[in-house]
Amino acid sequence: xxxxxxxxxxxxxxxxxxxxxxxxxxxxxxxxxxxxxxxxxxxxxxxxxxxxxxxxxxxxxxxxxxxxxxxxxxxxxxxxxxxxxxxxxxxxxxxxxxxxxxxxxxxxxxxxxxxxxxxxxxxxxxxxxxxxxxxxxxxxxxxxxxxxxxxxxxxxxxxxxxxxxxxxxxxxxxxxxxxxxxxxxxxxxxxxxxxxxxxxxxxxxxxxxx
Length: 210
Hints:
This protein is of the alpha+beta class.
């Protein structure tokens, strides 16, 4: 596996870094030993995600970003260098699928908005018909996702953690439930008690002599 900067910091990028005064910082980072693969932190992060952004490149050179989502665990780590997920029938444009037939390079953004964390990955992806590799389709299938149409298998070439600056915290319904669940239970119980007291008062008022 390569350093993220080894692949992404081209001559033009390095020239811009020099002009803006950040070249030395990133040059020192590139001197560190490259990871052999995804580590425990990256694996835990990816398998906890409920969404993923994947950019492909068209034959005309234009990038295209597609969102993929599912319950936590829909992204599977097949080995320290390979991840995958099931692809289900959508609007049937097949833009990413078509791009990958000509150019397998992808860039992925995995976001944790609640904790303001972002993991960037680049690699080579392949879309495989489910009936061409039913074993892989079974491994990548997500419960409740329907029939797997294709699988996406990505060989990771490099990754990099991004800084949290400018990531606006957002929370999905499950995260909100975990945060406010106990308080909501207390409020719902108290609301039920008050409704019962109010009903009893109404009943008592109705039974009084006119």
